[in-house]
Amino acid sequence: MSAPTIGPVGSVPAPKGPPPRSIADLAERFAGRVLVVDVEELVATIEAAGISDRQAQVRYGVPTVFALGEAVLAQLWAQRGHPGARPRRPAMAPFARAALARAALFLTPALAANAGGATLDRVGWPLLAITLVLGWSGGQALACAGYARAGHGAIGSALRRLGLGLLVGTAGCGALVALGPSWLVGARAVAYAVCGVGLVAFATVAAALVGDRVGAVLRWSVPVSLVSLALLAGLLPERYTWVLGAAVGLAAARAFAPALRRDPPGARMPVRTPYGAVAAYLLIGAGQAGAFLLVSRLEAGAGAAAVPLLLAVPLIELFVGWHAAGAAAGLDLYDDLATYRRHLRALGVVTLAALVPPLAIGAALVFAAFRLPYELSRHPDARTLVLSAAAGLLLAGVWAATLLLATRGRLVLAALLALAPVAFAVVPVAGWLVAVPTGSAESLIQVLLPATVAGLAATSVLGLAATAHTVFHSGSYR
Questions:
Q1: pLDDT in tens, 16-50
Q2: Cα separation of 228 and 266, whole Å?
Q3: Which segments carry the region annotation Disordered (predicted)?
Q4: pLDDT of residue 78
Q5: pLDDT at 314
Q6: CB-neighbour burial class of residue 225 (10 A; exposed 0-12, middle 13-18, buried 19+)
Q7: What integer pLDDT is reported at residue 118 of this predicted model?
Q8: 88, 332 in Cβ contact below 8 A?
């Protein structure tokens, strides 16, 4: 049933003059001649003016003439203050809160890991690295698979599959702890708990995203933050680190609570798992975790590299959320295709410019590391600290470009960009190990640090090129 909208006293005259350039122009042509009419009559008048479905697509960015008529009516409703007029939604307001909530959720496991540093020291570093890569990459891959089901309303089924993946990963880590050598595992009893809690923390983040319960899970994660701060401040003795694990379990219980519910009947349709996207996110997570391990193992500069990375997490989420909101807002703000494409080009320029500062500041720090004043150059770790800070900034820029490419659907490019820093660093280190097989760990660090920084700088340049190709290509916004 069509509602009475705008119509003529007699018949609706076709607009005269040059062809309107936008839906707003077309509505202005009808506004002075039209009083009340059904949508069908307005569509017939538009067709009588010589506007076909093809012209509606090319000139006005709508699929059919009927959709064009509805859009013109919406404009006329708004002009006359009709109570049924659709209010224009805010262009970019909602994204900031959601982006900051996701950033806080991502940083909660990092805070917990920092608080449990004394316990982590009792576990072999290779096992910690394996747990980090498995949890980081597996969490992203399982979240991608879960989104496919959750998008059809099958949230419970998606979370149950995610929980199954968590059980498989935990069983694998448990077998590695039980059978692995002592140099890899460390204290076995502690290793079981650390691996289990670490994987649960990653799965909690993935479950919160898949179930669209970020705010609720973040509130239930407040005990994790409080216990972590108490441990860091010395208010809670180290022997109570188990309380931190219990707090992580509490947040996980809230994240996986929807898995106990039965999905609605309409959501029980078979959903095809996007295996290509799952594999891409698996590689993206592995590359991000590997790059983080590279910059975090720069000995004296580990803190200098970690600080800019942690500070960059909310900025990256805001940046990507702003870009996505800007692209979506263009559909509401602009009526014709040409104007919308100009909006996308302007958005792409600002997006690309926002990725330049990490590269520029990181390159400046690299240059400064080899031009330190005499007083600072005498410090044994001065150059390492400056290069580590540069590595952290460069990696933050790479992560921003990677997440942006993934958001725009360029998953292959995002996976290659995420893996590039590891590849750039591993190749020269492997050559050094072949040339100097009996070299010391200190000599290896001296090779690894410059190779990591150089690889991150090259990856940042590649990331800028890939981002430019993506944001200026209209096909990326479909």
A1: 455 565 677 777 766 655 444 456 677 777 777 76
A2: 43
A3: 1-20
A4: 63
A5: 93
A6: middle
A7: 83
A8: yes
The answer to whether residues 181 and 228 touch, using CB atoms and an 8 Å cutoff, is no
Residues forming beta bridges with residue 123, ordered by sequence position: 186
Q: Specify the pLDDT at position 148.
A: 82
Scanning 240-301, the segments in alpha helix (DSSP H) are 242-255, 275-296
Which tokens hold the place of 463? Answer: 């990331």
Q: d(Cα 200, Cα 252) in Å, to the nearest integer?
A: 7
Q: How far apart are CA 324 and CA 314, in angstroms?
A: 15
> How far is residue 253's CA from residue 193's CA, in Å, rounded to a whole number?
17
**For the chain, give me the number of helices (H) and strands (E)?**
21, 0
Instruction: State the Cα–Cα distance between residues 120 and 198, nearest whole angstrom.
Output: 11
Nearby residues of 150 by Cβ (< 8 Å), 6 or more positions away: 158, 210, 211, 212
Low-confidence residues in the chain, pLDDT < 50: 1-16, 34-37, 81-92, 301, 374
Tell me the HSE value of 260 on the side-chain side, using a 13 A CA sphere. Answer: 5
Per residue in 408-431, pLDDT (tens digit) is: 889 999 999 999 998 888 777 776
Q: Taking each helix axis from N to C terminus, what angle separates 356-369 and 382-407, rounded to the nearest 10 degrees?
A: 160
- Choose among 258, 271, 278: nearest CA to 143: 278
Alpha carbons 5 and 469: distance in angstroms, whole number: 44
Q: Which amino acid is at 469?
A: H
Task: Report the C-alpha gap between 263 and 152 in whole angstroms.
Answer: 10
What long-range pairs does 273-276 form, CB within 8 A, spacing at least 24? 273/145, 273/148, 274/144, 274/145, 274/148, 276/411
Round to whole Å and give the CA distance between 72 and 320: 32
Nearest alpha-carbon partner for 315 in 355, 352, 288: 355
What string of DSSP letters covers 162-199? HHHHHHHHHHHHHHHHHHS-HHHHBSHHHHHHHHHHHH
Rounded Cα distance, 467 and 384, in Å: 30
Q: Are 410 and 466 in contact (CB under 8 A)?
A: yes
Domain residue limits, the chain: 1-87, 91-273, 283-478
> What pLDDT, on the 0 to 100 scale, is given for residue 437?
62
| DSSP letter assigned to residue 82 | -
8 A C-beta contact, residue 439 and residue 315 = no
CA angle, 203 as apex, 103 and 130 as ends, to 5°? 100
DSSP 138: H
Say what the pTM is: 0.76
The closest of 298, 403, 309, 417 to 362, measured between CA atoms, is: 309
